[in-house]
């Protein structure tokens, strides 16, 4: 008999989590103004808000923490991180930052100016926020197939090279400080980009003299999909694939809270020494001296170790198989989600589930609240609240997809938790016909409103 799949780790330390009653959850979500970010985490049973910084570090990472060098300048921890970035990712220059958006801030402070355009495959919301805040334009060039949740293709996060070339032809290269390739494509559902497409994007950038920035938050998961789905890569190691993938980029911004499996950390890496020098000024101003940026020595140590573990096949197989397991459970119950299952999350297709809720009442947010009320499970809306208002007209933007993301933290929950999640989603799905009304906004900030927005039930 073929042995079933199992995790490539055993558990050495546990953290207690508490169940609650529906009545308690009704009060808590009301107090949270129907914004899942406002909930106290102890009021959440299974927390799928994000896979960012919520993973479990390994024994080796914890022991690396104890060896952190907390010197202000030139700490050995900095050099450990430098070696890992050079050896595993292949970038010569880097600046540590406290997380991914801080790397974006340092980079875009240096290279983006008012009136610029930055094309990409579904810029993550902080990336877009940093571009729009500087009165530049983020142009989405993701393939159209990504918006059809039921279409099953292996690389659904790709850049549409025709759309990209159109941008390159329309704007002079002085107006395009960089092109952002996000691996994996979070917003499109944790969907990967093939090596062929990475290469194609890089070639197009080179042809037009444009810098290619890789947003590598989930670069290792992307490499796993290349290994398991793209012809010619089955026999290559994850580390070999990672080196090739990143060799096509000029710059990498990294939220290490994802694929480097740390609770806090990030960096900005590049090949160009001159650019590195220019970025140093903003690193010093916003983050810290160039050999620690926003990080302590122990965090840099854990990050270096995490980059190594996170690019091991076993680690990635365990993780991505767990997400796929949840996907198969949802298939059993006929629940629509962005297919195939993504690397870090399942994205429920809220428009197909709550067909009676009008788009003006935030369909995916409504589904998120229902799932919380059902079982204390917290997902996150990837829909029109996140899409924010048009920076010029200030009208609400309604994206093609209204998704509820269930992000799975790394090495944190077991497949029993996946069973509970699937059952809870099924229970909401079974009563979908009775859910007719959503929520309206009562308070919001001008940029990245979804974190702090306040809502009330629509009347
Ligand atoms: N890029 C991508 C693709 C991301 O998913 C994120 C964060 C960032 C950049 C910014 O990194 O959070 O370290 O500042 N994504 C988290 C999420 C927040 O839940 O998907 P950060």
TrEMBL record:
<keyword id="KW-0663">Pyridoxal phosphate</keyword>
<dbReference type="InterPro" id="IPR015424">
    <property type="entry name" value="PyrdxlP-dep_Trfase"/>
</dbReference>
<dbReference type="InterPro" id="IPR015422">
    <property type="entry name" value="PyrdxlP-dep_Trfase_small"/>
</dbReference>
<comment type="similarity">
    <text>Belongs to the beta-eliminating lyase family.</text>
</comment>
<dbReference type="InterPro" id="IPR015421">
    <property type="entry name" value="PyrdxlP-dep_Trfase_major"/>
</dbReference>
<dbReference type="GO" id="GO:0016830">
    <property type="term" value="F:carbon-carbon lyase activity"/>
</dbReference>
<feature type="domain" description="Aromatic amino acid beta-eliminating lyase/threonine aldolase">
    <location>
        <begin position="47"/>
        <end position="423"/>
    </location>
</feature>
<protein>
    <submittedName>
        <fullName>Tryptophanase</fullName>
    </submittedName>
</protein>
<keyword id="KW-0456">Lyase</keyword>
<feature type="modified residue" description="N6-(pyridoxal phosphate)lysine">
    <location>
        <position position="258"/>
    </location>
</feature>
<dbReference type="GO" id="GO:0009072">
    <property type="term" value="P:aromatic amino acid metabolic process"/>
</dbReference>
<dbReference type="InterPro" id="IPR011166">
    <property type="entry name" value="Beta-eliminating_lyase"/>
</dbReference>
<dbReference type="InterPro" id="IPR001597">
    <property type="entry name" value="ArAA_b-elim_lyase/Thr_aldolase"/>
</dbReference>
<dbReference type="Pfam" id="PF01212">
    <property type="entry name" value="Beta_elim_lyase"/>
</dbReference>
């Amino acid at each position: 008999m073929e042995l079933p799949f199992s995790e490539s780790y055993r558990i050495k330390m546990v953290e207690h989590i508490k169940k609650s009653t529906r009545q308690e959850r009704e009060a808590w979500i009301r107090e949270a103004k129907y914004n899942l970010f406002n909930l106290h985490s102890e009021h959440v049973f299974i927390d799928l808000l994000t896979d960012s910084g919520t993973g479990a570090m390994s024994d080796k990472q914890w022991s690396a923490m104890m060896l952190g060098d907390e010197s202000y300048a030139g700490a050995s921890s900095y050099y450990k991180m430098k070696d890992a970035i050079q050896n595993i990712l292949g970038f010569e220059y880097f600046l540590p930052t406290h997380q991914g958006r801080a790397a974006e801030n340092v980079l875009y402070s240096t290279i983006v100016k008012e009136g610029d355009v930055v094309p990409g495959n579904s810029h993550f919301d902080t990336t877009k926020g940093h571009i729009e805040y500087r009165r530049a334009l983020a142009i989405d060039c993701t393939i159209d197939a990504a918006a059809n949740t039921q279409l099953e293709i292996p690389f659904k996060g790709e850049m549409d090279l025709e759309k990209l070339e159109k941008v390159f032809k329309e704007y002079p290269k002085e107006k395009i400080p960089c092109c952002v390739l996000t691996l994996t494509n979070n917003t499109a559902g944790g969907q990967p980009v093939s090596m062929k497409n990475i290469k194609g994007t890089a070639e197009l950038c080179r042809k037009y003299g444009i810098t290619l920035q890789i947003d590598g938050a989930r670069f290792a998961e992307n490499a796993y999909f290349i290994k398991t789905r793209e012809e010619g890569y089955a026999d290559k190691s994850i580390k070999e694939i990672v080196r090739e993938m990143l060799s096509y980029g000029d710059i990498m911004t990294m939220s290490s809270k994802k694929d480097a499996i740390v609770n806090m950390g990030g960096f900005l890496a590049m090949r160009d020494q001159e650019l590195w020098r220019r970025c140093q000024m903003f690193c010093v101003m916003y983050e810290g001296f160039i050999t620690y940026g926003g990080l302590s020595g122990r965090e840099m140590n854990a990050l270096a170790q995490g980059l190594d573990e996170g690019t091991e096949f076993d680690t990635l197989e365990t993780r991505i198989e767990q997400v796929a397991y949840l996907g198969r459970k949802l298939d059993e119950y006929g629940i629509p989600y962005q297919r195939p299952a993504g690397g870090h999350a399942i994205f429920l297709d809220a428009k197909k589930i709550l067909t009676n809720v009008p788009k003006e009442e935030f369909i995916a947010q409504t589904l998120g609240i229902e799932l919380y009320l059902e079982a204390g499970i917290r997902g996150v809306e990837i829909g029109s609240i996140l899409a924010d208002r048009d920076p010029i007209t200030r009208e609400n933007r309604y994206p093609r997809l209204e998704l509820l993301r269930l992000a799975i933290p790394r090495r944190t929950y077991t497949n029993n938790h996946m069973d509970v999640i699937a059952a809870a989603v099924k229970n909401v799905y079974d009563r979908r016909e009775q859910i007719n009304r959503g929520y309206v906004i009562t308070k919001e900030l001008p940029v990245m409103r979804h974190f702090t927005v306040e809502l009330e039930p629509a009347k």
